[in-house]
Amino acid sequence: MAGKLKWVTDIEKSVLINNFEKRGWVQVTESEDWNFYWMSVQTIRNCFSVENGFRLSDDQLVNHFPNHYELTRKDLMVKNIKRYRKEQEKEGSPLAEKDENGKYLYLDFVPVTFMLPADYNLFVEEFRKSPSSTWIMKPCGKAQGKGIFLINKLSQIKKWSRDSKTSSFVSQSSKEAYVISLYIDNPLLIGGKKFDLRLYVLVTTYRPLKCYMYKLGFCRFCTVKYTPSTSELDNMFVHLTNVAIQKHGDDYNQVHGGKWTVSNLRLYLESTRGREVTDKLFHEIHWIIVQSLKAVAPVMNNDKHCFECYGYDIIIDDKLKPWLIEVNASPSLTSSTANDRILKYNLINDILNIVVPNGEIPDCKLNKLPPTEVLGHYHLLYDEEAAQADGAERDLKSRGGQPTGVKGSRAKDSGRPAMTTWK
Ligand SMILES: Nc1ncnc2c1ncn2[C@@H]1O[C@H](COP(=O)(O)OP(=O)(O)O)[C@@H](O)[C@H]1O
Ligand SMILES: [Mg+2]
């Protein structure tokens, strides 16, 4: 069996195992020599923990970056994006341009968010500016809609704070951290229902940034018609698009699972709103994804043994503005429908073709850029090296062919970049 890739996983999902077996790879246990480990986020924490002192060798690959949580924890994602905005502003980047009310023209793509309890006072200040707004409380360390609730009065948050202080004997430090975000109360509705997008983005390196967008994302619909009415604030079937929530609804459809493909959404929008605004919307979605990755790239441990497939949650509002809601490190590989199973099997297949070229034992010393033929349903979303080379070339041309030296290699984005600078 020499020469065959040895795999391990602690996630018992058939879409993974079938893909490994199809390639003739050999299953081993964690304690044996392995080349490829598809692991849960708990395991990656142990794998790279200081106590463990575990060092991966050149022929080993894992499916998370060690500190992926900089992007995938709700509080840290916002913190990093806020820091990125300030940095852009300091550098005088045109990306950080603001309108007359002091709002970022381009970098305002996450709903206003505060950490609780740390930023409680800042939150109260903001709340008082627009007391009729609705806010959404989300525990930082949970997923699948667990622990989320909506509020529209300060008294509700005071009650939450009191309850969480007195509900147990846990110390202040182990008390659960929350984020509170402005609730997007004007979502784009289709058939009267709210939905969000689940998009898959593969990152193979952060410095330089190289990321791929999966063409087969989908929309997840609520089962109950949307209303911003305060009497329905507690009805999670109206407000939360998570399948884990909606599948318990009376009107959940087992056949389509409340899902639409992104290409269906595109067709729907092209026919109801027109081609131009639809293209603009998708361009903006791609743009905010790249910005979110750029925001965390400097703090990411760019370990060469790592890649990661993120599940992006995006909400589109009724003005066709996309909002980044959160990024998941372990997007669900559970199949809720037959189509879902095919999609997730193909997703894993395409990831493996990119990160394990030809299914051979990995060699992290080689820095291969996969040829377009192996990308499957992925397309290159952003390649920092190519963008910089492109920027340098444009610079060169604009200076009448004079070499531009060090300065010339800076690829400064101006405003929201045009499609051509993505590749
Ligand atoms: N700021 C917001 N405005 C509107 N809807 C939101 C907002 N934040 C979250 N949601 C809804 O709640 C769902 C769950 O929130 P999310 O942040 O993705 O947490 P989870 O980790 O539990 O999935 C989202 O898929 C979306 O439908
Ligand atoms: Mg989510």
From TrEMBL:
It catalyses: (L-glutamyl)(n)-gamma-L-glutamyl-L-glutamyl-[protein] + L-glutamate + ATP = (L-glutamyl)(n+1)-gamma-L-glutamyl-L-glutamyl-[protein] + ADP + phosphate + H(+). It is found in: Cytoplasm, Cytoskeleton, Cilium basal body. GO terms for cellular component: ciliary basal body; microtubule. GO terms for molecular function: ATP binding; metal ion binding; tubulin binding; tubulin-glutamic acid ligase activity. Residues 389-423 are annotated as: Disordered. It comes from the Eukaryota. InterPro entries: ATP-grasp (IPR011761), TTL/TTLL_fam (IPR004344). Residues 313-356 form the ATP-grasp domain. GO terms for biological process: microtubule cytoskeleton organization. The keyword Nucleotide-binding applies. Gene3D superfamilies: ATP-grasp fold, B domain (3.30.470.20). Keywords: ATP-binding, Cell projection, Cilium, Cytoplasm, Cytoskeleton, Ligase, Microtubule, Nucleotide-binding. Part of the neuronal tubulin polyglutamylase complex which contains TPGS1, TPGS2, TTLL1, LRRC49 and NICN1. Interacts with PCM1, CSTPP1 and LRRC49. Belongs to the tubulin polyglutamylase family. This is Polyglutamylase complex subunit TTLL1. It comes from Xenopus laevis.
